[in-house]
Amino acid sequence: MILLAGCTTSGEAPRPMGKPLGYELRPTGVGVPGSPQEVSFDRVLPGAEISLAKLAGPVTARESCGPGMTRITFREGLVATFRGREFVGWQAEGRSAGATC
To answer: Is the pLDDT of residue 52 over 60?
Structure first.
């Protein structure tokens, strides 16, 4: 039984992503509007990217932007900065917080 728990069928199609929830810019990360939940600085890839995509839409660009840093842009205009695998900053709506490129 335990061995079967991690199995999926090979014909399983990925679920399409629905409309983004929207996001709230915070000094400590990117929040879920009307909720204390947030994708905080220090979250790691790929979890942070998946969570941010639920809030700000799919990734539209990914580029290196400094030594060990990556900038990921989401459809709704959010730009997230990662140092290595760690979420360290954001830019959006003419504002920024944390480390950015």
So the answer is: yes
